[in-house]
Amino acid sequence: MIRNFMVIGTGGLLMYSRQYGDKKVDQDLISGFLTALASFSSEVKGGKIESLVMQDIRFIYSVGEGDMLFVFCCDKDDLEEEVQGRIEKVKNEFHRMFADQIKNWNGNVTIFRPFDEIIDEMIALPLKIVIVGEPGVGKSTLFDFFPGEGILSLDENDNEIFKKSVSVEGIQNVKQMDLFKFTLEPLVNEIRLHVDLLKSADIVILVVSSGVSNVSRTRKFVDKLKANVRKGRLVVLANMQDMKDVALEPEMIEKNLVLKTYGFSSIDSEAKGKFFALIGQMLSNIFSSQVSETETPAAEPPQ
């Protein structure tokens, strides 16, 4: 997800910024650093760098008129082309709206606040949710909670991929949710075909039936999934908790798979609403855990 958008003027002065979510970025410090880095890179390599990574944040930027920098701060594993596809549109619109103000700018950043509504509409990235599990665990039921028709496609080995796009309201910076449904074993066996999707997914929901044999079989694939999903984004949905005699408790499944696990029953009369609430809880847990991290950022080489 996009965390911040910044417009940086000559000399590294921050002209405009818009923050999304709770992750804080020292914008004045970063703006000066990026300006210096861009200038240095131009002298050495003859061109402007387009992105760099610091810890789990990717800074993607484009140079506009008058050497202004337009910077997106997003999750490291977000697909870069998705962000790049928006940055040129945003840059052109900012120049169009504020051409006169930019020429005569005296340091007053409030004159650019009307851009808030524009940027909110222009940069919204789809929320990506991947639902994966063995046959018969309830993936299709979860998928069908969302309105609209699913689109079936095949990967290069003819494994099925189901996708559904739905409109979203009430989540900041999110206007659309893209859902993907996979069968577990074919996905893991051909994981190289789906690495970009898995690494850019906001949540990967591993669905189990809560039965002993299903959890045992699923466990064999967990490590490979973990290696290809962002930290904390892979969670377990322990379905069929209504089958009290045979269903393992969520706490036991969590201990077995070493993944955050949520209990669920898809036949519950209020299952649809509860599933939507769980997605909100999953997102909240993911982003709150990111905010609490206090590791010192380590820069990766610019790309």
Walk me through this protein's architecture.
There is one protein chain. The chain has 303 residues and is of the alpha/beta class. The protein folds into two domains: 121 residues, Beta-Lactamase; 165 residues, 3-Layer(aba) Sandwich (Rossmann fold). Helices cover 37% and strands 24% of the residues. The strands form two sheets. The chain has a seven-stranded mixed sheet with strand order 7-8-9-6-10-11-12, with helices on both faces. It has a five-stranded antiparallel sheet with strand order 2-1-5-4-3.
Key terms:
elongated; alpha/beta; Rossmann fold; seven-stranded mixed sheet; 9 helices; single chain; Beta-Lactamase; 303 residues
Give me the secondary-structure topology:
Blueprint: E1 2-8, E2 14-19, H1 27-45, E3 51-54, E4 57-63, E5 69-75, H2 80-103, H3 115-122, E6 127-133, H4 139-144, E7 151-154, E8 160-167, E9 176-183, H5 184-189, H6 195-200, E10 203-208, H7 212-226, E11 234-238, H8 250-257, E12 261-263, H9 271-291
Parallel strand pairs: 6-9, 6-10, 10-11, 11-12
Antiparallel strand pairs: 1-2, 1-5, 3-4, 4-5, 7-8, 8-9
Helix pairs in contact: 2-3
